[in-house]
From TrEMBL:
Similarity annotation: Belongs to the sigma-70 factor family. ECF subfamily.
Keyword Transcription in record: yes
CDD domains according to UniProt: Sigma70_r4
Residue stretches making up the RNA polymerase sigma-70 region domain: 18-81
Database matches in Pfam families: Sigma70_r2, Sigma70_r4_2
The protein's name: RNA polymerase sigma-70 factor (Sigma-E family)
Domain (RNA polymerase sigma factor 70 region 4 type) ranges: 104-155
Keywords of the record: DNA-binding, Sigma factor, Transcription, Transcription regulation
Keyword Transcription: yes
Amino acid sequence: MAKESRDVDFTAYVGSRAAWLRNVAYLLCADWHRADDLVQESITKLYTNWSRAARAENLDGYARTVLVNTFLAEQRTSWWRRTRTGFEAADGVATGADLDAALDLRQALAALPPRQRATVVLRYFCDLSVEQTAEAMGCSSGNVKSQSSRALDALRGSAALRAGRAGG
């Protein structure tokens, strides 16, 4: 009976948060297919540790940490470097938004090193504090601040470069 209840709770959680996890994963890796793989691997890890995860004070934070750690661990493998295909455009079309600007931002985000990208996604997409981001990434607050600063400088530089090409 306990296993059935556990599975029902897990299934309900994943069913309600899968789309959100997929969006976070996409922002990390800039590839919808790879995002699906990251989410699947993270969900598997979450399931194997569900008894601990279900007791977490912030289950979304726990799941997000698993996802980010899975992404960062993947970046360190030689398999990923050999099979990386580069930036792919998003599935579907954005409505009511500046599609060119969104694609430019996605390309600039995809060009960031993995830890900087993870920091930007956690801080500005997931709206975490410096301390929460540091906890999720397993690093110091100072590291989060420096990674954020470098990433934002790179994003600003990319935006200025694109604006210079468009205007000149």
